Automatic annotation (TrEMBL):
Molecular function terms, GO-annotated: S-methyl-5-thioadenosine phosphorylase activity
GO biological process, any: L-methionine salvage from methylthioadenosine
Positions contributing to substrate binding: 186, 210-212
Sorted UniProt keywords: Glycosyltransferase, Purine salvage, Transferase
InterPro entries per UniProt: MTAP (IPR010044), Nucleoside_phosphorylase_d (IPR000845), Nucleoside_phosphorylase_sf (IPR035994)
Main enzyme class: transferase
Gene3D superfamilies referenced in this protein's UniProt entry, alphabetically: Nucleoside phosphorylase domain
PANTHER family: S-METHYL-5'-THIOADENOSINE PHOSPHORYLASE (PTHR42679)
Residue ranges occupied by any Nucleoside phosphorylase domain in the UniProt entry: 6-242
Self-association and partners: Homohexamer. Dimer of a homotrimer.
Residues of the site described as Important for substrate specificity: 167, 223
Described function: Catalyzes the reversible phosphorylation of S-methyl-5'-thioadenosine (MTA) to adenine and 5-methylthioribose-1-phosphate. Involved in the breakdown of MTA, a major by-product of polyamine biosynthesis. Responsible for the first step in the methionine salvage pathway after MTA has been generated from S-adenosylmethionine. Has broad substrate specificity with 6-aminopurine nucleosides as preferred substrates.
Lineage per the UniProt record: Bacteria, Pseudomonadati, Pseudomonadota, Alphaproteobacteria, Rhodobacterales
Name of protein: S-methyl-5'-thioadenosine phosphorylase
Length: 290
């Protein structure tokens, strides 16, 4: 058993959470640059929790410029074991309506302008991403959502686009009709990939704000409509987060799906060929296996 520490990454509309005992915003230095913002730390039901607003308070970072590596490194560095990503998204399905939550379990990564790995020349590693989210953590998120009275769908494929513009109708129909995606957003990649490389359990709670642009009766994505739905969604997201510590508990058994051991056999580079500077930067992310 180890100690649980829950890390919540709040998306658009969710820039802080309340109810943390001993709450304080701390600045965390990372060799991967500055995280999106300071990190709000404290305890909920006796369980340590950290909250990081993905876009920064005041919504400073665009989906392409969110410092994903620094964010995941900083959370790992302060002891986070389980990351809950909370995000706004559009829906490709009539039965997944604005206001509903989806516990995402698969991704299609269409981003192209972001740093996607902690590893590279001088230290090569290949982790599995067949199942990019953690089943145990996802189950806890689903239970918390149901308990909070939220309409929640378990499982769904999230198309991650580069943005910041929303999709054209042709793109939206491709993602929906050909690729069978369920929801669309701009931020869960490379976040989920980096969490896996950092051996963190990762669950994605996608809060639907709109029907993207495929829907014949809803037309173009309208940012005003999104913003109206966002604040109600953010309140529900906070309710979900409040219930998580009681479900996850203080003591943490090893992840039954191996998220916390993802690097066990992943590193390819021979010890004598490793880049010492990169190895040093990976102290928090991969120190366990280096
Ligand atoms: C406000 S609509 C577009 C914006 O919302 C989502 O952000 P996040 O995933 O951080 O909640 C989407 O990915 C875009 O960044
Ligand atoms: N339709 C949409 N496309 C991409 N990101 C979104 N975030 C919220 N709605 C979205």
């Amino acid at each position: 058993m180890t100690d649980t520490m829950i890390g919540v990454i709040g998306g658009s509309g969710l820039y802080e959470i309340d109810g943390l005992e001993g709450a304080s915003w701390i600045e965390v230095e990372s060799p991967w640059g500055d995280p999106s913002d300071s990190i709000l730390t404290g305890r909920l039901d006796g369980v340590p929790m950290a909250f990081l607003p993905r876009h920064g308070r005041g919504h400073v970072h665009s989906p392409s410029t969110v410092p994903y590596c620094a964010n995941i490194d900083a959370l790992k560095r302060i002891g986070v074991t389980d990351v809950i990503s909370v995000s706004a998204c559009g829906s490709f399905r009539e039965d997944m309506a604005p206001g509903d939550f989806v516990i995402v379990d698969q991704f299609i990564d269409r981003t192209f302008a972001r740093e996607k790995s902690f590893f590279g020349t001088g230290l090569v590693a290949h982790v599995s991403l067949a199942h990019p989210t953690c089943e145990r953590l996802s189950a806890a998120c689903e239970a918390s959502a149901r308990d909070a009275g939220i309409t929640v769908h378990r499982g769904g494929t999230y198309l991650c686009m580069e943005g910041p513009q929303f999709s054209s109708v042709a793109e939206s129909k491709l993602y929906r009709d050909v690729w069978n995606c369920d929801v669309i957003g701009m931020t869960n990649m490379p976040e989920a990939k980096l969490a896996r490389e950092a051996e963190l359990c990762y669950a994605s709670v996608a809060m639907i704000t709109d029907y993207d642009s495929w829907h014949p009766e809803h037309g173009a994505v309208d940012i005003n409509e999104i913003i109206r739905t966002l604040s109600g969604n953010a309140d529900k997201g906070r309710e979900l987060v409040q219930r998580l510590p009681a479900l996850l508990g203080k003591d943490r058994a090893p992840c039954p799906h191996g998220c916390d051991r993802a690097l066990e056999f992943a590193i390819m580079t021979a010890p004598e060929k490793r880049d010492v500077d990169l190895v040093a930067r990976l102290d928090a992310v991969a120190g366990r296996v280096l």
